[in-house]
Design brief:
263 residues, globular, 73% helix
Amino acid sequence: MLKRGSLDPLFYWLFMTNNYTKIAQVTFVFWVLKIIATTLGETLGDFISMSLNLGYLTGIMITFSALFVILLMQIRADKYYSWLFWLAIIGTTTAGTEISDFMDRSLHLGYIGGSILLSTLLLIALFIWHRIEGNVSVNAISNKRTEIFFWCAVLISNSLGTAFGDYLVDDLGLSYIAGAMATSAIIVVVLALHYFTKINETILFWVAFIFTRPFGATFGDFLTKPLESGGLNLPRDYASIAAVMLFILILYFSENYKKRAVR
């Protein structure tokens, strides 16, 4: 198992020793991959519902079907597979995009209404998890039941991040880049709190996990939205393919780096 200092300091942000190895270690690379995964989830989700003109409800059905299969494989697996874990993360971000857009637009809850509802659901999920297991730490995921709680919280938090990102841009009037910068500033504050305060790392983890989602969502919109709306107007399929290639490249080199570090 990797110890603090076995990798370059750059590769550590929130260091957690995982007894249950099916959850990726929370390092600097973890957050980089999480942000790329959220960007990919935004572009891929919009491609399914908008570019293919399937609508949000059909998009939910498609993404949830895929996510169900992926999570079933992840939870049934007897050890950690990096490709499977991160495929599940991408699946939750893509499904989260469809959930948020369906709630905000099809159900007409609005971005603030959707954000409040999803925030409430996340707090309820974390409360139930804590009530049953005694904590909500990634460190303490030691059985399949706890892992199910984890993935429920991940799915809700990724849906919440999408709604909040849309709120920043559409309701508050921020540009896509400004929205990404605003959420990245929150992530930087969390990083500073981790290094310079004694605030509980589990709290900081979930705050960072939530806010990496609107960062990726607003950046994904920046890549694909029309020029007149402040985007780059890149095709969603091309943007998704580029994100996939970047994601695979970083994951490949990070896994190889870890293998060399523990030899």
